[in-house]
Amino acid sequence: MGRAEVLASYRAQPTMTFSAADTSELAVVSRDPFAVVSERVGLHGKTREGDPFISTYRITFVLERRGASWRVLNSHGSLIGIDKHPAGSKP
After folding, report:
1. Distance from C-alpha of 90 to C-alpha of 48, rounded to nearest angstrom
2. Spatial contact of 35 and 11, defined as CB atoms under 8 Å apart
3. pLDDT tens across 76-91, in order?
4. Calpha distance 76→72 (Å, rounded)
5. Contacts with 44 (C-beta within 8 Å, 6 or more apart), sequence order
6. How many angstroms separate the CA atoms of 26 and 54, rounded?
7. What are the residue boundaries of the structural domains of the chain, listed by start?
8. How many other C-beta atoms lie within 10 A of the C-beta of residue 89?
9. Which CATH architecture is the domain 15-83 placed in?
10. Looking at residue 31, what is its pLDDT?
11. Does the pLDDT value for residue 70 go beyond 80?
12. Is the bond leading into 33 cis (omega within 30 degrees of zero)?
C-alpha cells in the first residue's frame, strides 16, 4: 500500500469492531538503557456482518530508558492467525 491508500484506509468505514483483548507469553529482556518486550495478543471482535473472530498477533516493542521513564523506539506486530470460529460461536 502506498501513502494515499494507507491514509484512505484510516478514513474508511471499519470492516470490524474489537470488543476485548487478551495477552500471554510476555517476555522481557533488559540491557540498560534498552529493553525488548514481546507478547502474544488476541484481539476479539466481530466483522461488519456480525461474525465473531479472534486475531492473534506477536507484538514486539523496543524501549529506551530516558531518565525515570521509558520511550518506545520501535514496535512491530506479526499476524499469527485468525480464528473465524472461536469457541462458543455459531459456525
Report:
1. 16
2. no
3. 999 999 999 888 665 5
4. 11
5. 18, 19, 20, 21, 22, 52, 53, 54, 86
6. 19
7. 15-83
8. 13
9. Roll (3.10)
10. 96
11. yes
12. yes
Amino acid in the structure at residue 50: G
pLDDT digits 0-9 by tens, 3-59? 999 899 889 888 889 999 999 999 999 999 999 999 999 999 999 899 999 999 999
Amino acid at 26: L
Specify the amino acid at residue 53. F
Task: Report long-range pairs for 13-16 (Cβ below 8 Å, ≥24 apart).
Answer: 13/48, 14/48, 15/47, 15/48, 16/45, 16/46, 16/47, 16/48, 16/53
CB 43 within 8 A of CB 22: no
Query: Among all chains, which residue has been given the C-alpha cell 500500500?
Result: 1
